[in-house]
Amino acid sequence: MNVQELMRAHPRAGRGISNSLVECIERCFSCAQSCTACADACLSEDMLDKLRRCVRLDLDCADICMATGAIASRRTETSEQVLLQLLEICANVCQLCAEECEEHASQHPHCKICAAECRLCEESCRRAMQDVGGASGRVQAN
Length: 142
Hints:
- The chain has 142 residues and is mostly helical.
- It has one domain: Substrate Binding Domain Of Dnak, Chain:A, Domain 2.
- It contains five helices and no strands.
- Helix 2 packs antiparallel against helix 3 (52-73).
- The chain starts with a helix and ends in an 11-residue tail after the last helix.
């Protein structure tokens, strides 16, 4: 998906969306997919009883990332305060999910991949929080 192109085409947001928010939207959707796949892979592991918390955090993180990406994509009459709170929640849940997946990363490659995606999303959400409502790093319409 080309989020930047879609945002440039938006009649109200075209000149007013930060590059960090565009990246965050992309990272949120990527993280959601990774967390969903990791949870599914965990369910196939022999040691499922030791991965229950991982599955739960993966699924929670996936849902929160999907919601954050969707809400951040809606630029008409955006509530910056709601978006800031959601970005903070998403960053925090990504951090928790990454920490949990890192505990299993040496035994399960899918957890290692998921942890890395969660860390990228967490960082991206934190950068986007700095730009929401500001003017730095804005995407310029052509």
